[in-house]
Amino acid sequence: MQMQRTILWIVFSMSLLFLWDGWQRYNGRPSMFGGPSTAQSDAKSAPGANGAAAGGAGQLPAKADASIPTAPAGAAGAPAPAAGAAAGAVPGGAAAQAAPAAEMVQLRSDVLALDIDLVGAQVMRAELLKHKASEEASHGAGGNVVLLHDLPGQVYTAQSGLVGAPQGSNFPTHKTPFTVVEAPHAMDGGGVQMKLAAESGGLKLVRTYTLAPGSYVLSVSDEVTNTGDTTLKPTLYLQLTRDGNKPPGESRFYNTYTGPVIYTEEQKFQKVAFDKIEKGGAEHAKGAADGWAGVIQHYFVSAWIPSDKAQREFFTRKIADNLYAVGALQPLGEVAPKASVTADTRLLIAPQDQRMLVKIAPGLDLTVDYGWLTVIAKPIFWLLQYLHGMVGNWGWAIVLLTIVIKTAFFPLQAASYKSMARMKAVTPRLTALRERYGSDRVKMNQAMMELYKEEKINPLGGCLPIVVQIPVFIALYWVLLASVEMRNAPWTGWIHDLATPDPYYVLPLIMAATMFLQTKLNPTPPDPVQAKVMMVMPIVFSVMFFFFPSGLVLYWLVNNVYSITQQYYITRMMGNKTKGGSKKR
What we know:
The protein has twelve helices and 18 strands. It has helices at about 1-25, 275-280, 355-360, 375-390, 395-410, 410-425, 425-435, 440-455, 465-480, 505-520, 530-545, 550-585, and strands at about 105-110, 110-115, 120-130, 145-150, 155-165, 180-185, 190-200, 205-210, 215-225, 235-245, 260-265, 270, 285-290, 290-295, 300-305, 310-320, 325-330, 340-350. Mean pLDDT is about 80; it is low at about 1-10, about 25-90 and about 95-100. By secondary structure, the protein is of the alpha+beta class. The chain has a nine-stranded antiparallel beta sheet with strand order 1-2-3-4-5-10-17-16-13. The longest helix has about 35 residues, at about 550-585.
């Protein structure tokens, strides 16, 4: 039992250590473990995508690496890059002269409202009409989630254009003025569409944006026509530009990943942290004939998905202070004079709804970040969805899920409770041994081992079953934390959003009471210090859970109540057996 308490004490201490480390990183201080800080408090305000700064026209500042990444030499299936592409540059956020005043055209469906800048046909703002912003994120003003935006110090935009022009000329990029060919209009069968055009460097680019009803995917069709007299080899670039800050309204008590991600069938899902890009040490997939590049944050994702089965080259780069880009390059091949080529790509701007994402492109469902426990978390989420289909309420689905998992682990839990019951029965004798041998630890441990052997008690019997269950319950924790389905999902009474803390702290206080009751049911530690720690733990955890999403607190509360019921049943059953044995004797 001493070993079990020692392990629990270590777990508790490490939990507090990681909590403090997360707090440090959130406030921009260095991690105790050498990792990057969560917030970049010393970062300068990111310039807007159309802001004026020093540097070459349409190019990055000289200190930034503007070269187009190419597939590694000898990469399987990777063709040689288009002529001039390797030496060219994707335009950055800086320009030598002030950009024209922004003129926006709005493209709107039932789920998305997009603002398209006629300078570069960039997506400068994206509002998710079915998702309400949190109070903190909206500064109490309410409204919907705005995922893409171009504000002072907050930049998150989607851009595309063409590179690979001959020396001394430029193809249409996200810095080139576009004209409206067809204004936004409704299509037969639903959906909206608009068409823009730009011409530069001997190429005419006609871009068609299409939003289907109920879809978070913006379909992009780029028709490229060679208007000159020489053959050209343009390369289409698709990039997301974002500052390195955490999204507004993030909790201070838990940390979720915000940053670029890249997926290919061969190398699978890869995170590319902003600090790695900052230091120039970002490692990720380069050339492939599949995959996508995107940016994820808690509950939401944006991603560029190049044409199906087209060769692409992924890149990440720093544009300016606290401003980064992730994207893909898609060579369009040779375009003869007066000939045309069309590239169909997609821009995803969406909540991390796994059922929806898996239908759009392979690997997009992995943007729901369960970490190293994904293999366990995915079946748990499937079960949670199934239960929600039965009861129609995510809160009650959490209750049922917790009960199902706890019941499945009942044999292991019973073994743990039986061991605890035996330990509780011999606690007075353990206390007597402690008093008898005092500071002679060797003799005391020998006497304890003899007592365990006499009573057929395994000191680790109550601990090992718990250790086996830990990965499952950590995975369940991440399922509830990462699932966008919890946002704005009511449970009952005063709980109107399972993704936000309990406004009246009722659930955390009840959970603290159940933890205190559990402590009373467990054997009292012979060590007075350990006994005090076990009594203080409910208070510490209740304070922590004041700031946790109510869905997580609900899970812990149901878990505690069911555990108490199981423990009471096992302890009472063990007590009846002991009485029965005493009567027979």
